[in-house]
Design goal:
75% of the residues lie in helices and 0% in strands. It is mainly alpha-helical and 153 residues long.
Length: 153
């Protein structure tokens, strides 16, 4: 039974890897280069050839983390395309909403968060990941951050 769950998990991850590679081909990112695509392709081979002791769901979580780190932490057309394809393929993976930290804190604390919110506010809203009310709050936090930055100059 556990073996069946593991095989299904691997199959789903392989589909996600294929989507990742396709996303990076469709929307090439100069900052990543071909090495990133090679990493994804190599990961499939590595998973297929794991030692028996690593062929379990607990170890598999590390593979999932390796595949999704870029797509959880970055934004851009490749990332948005990736998540749309994951959703369309009905795969059991979800995009973590990093905005919850900002919303809970009720402010943006640095330029990285400012850029992140600016980049993802529209797609997150379109995907239903944030409400209209949260969009309004985030726009307020963006404005507050801009005002703090202006006052420091």
């Amino acid at each position: 039974m556990k073996e069946d769950k593991y095989l299904i998990a691997v199959e789903n991850l392989f589909k996600a890897i294929d989507i990742a590679v396709n996303s990076l081909h469709k929307y090439p990112q100069e900052r990543l280069g071909d090495d990133f695509i090679d990493f994804y392709k190599g990961l499939k081979n590595k998973i297929l050839n794991h030692e028996i002791k690593f062929k379990n769901l607990k170890s598999h979580k590390y593979n999932i983390e390796a595949v999704f780190t870029y797509f959880q932490e970055c934004s851009g057309p490749d990332v948005e395309y990736f998540w749309k394809q994951i959703k369309d393929a009905n795969l059991p993976f979800t995009r973590k909403n990093r905005l919850q930290k900002i919303l809970k804190r009720k402010r943006i604390i640095n330029a990285i968060e400012y850029d992140f919110v600016t980049d993802i506010i529209v797609p997150y809203h379109q995907e239903g990941m944030i409400t209209e009310e949260e969009v309004i709050l985030l726009n307020t936090y963006l404005g507050n951050f801009e005002n703090r930055k202006k006052n420091k100059v």
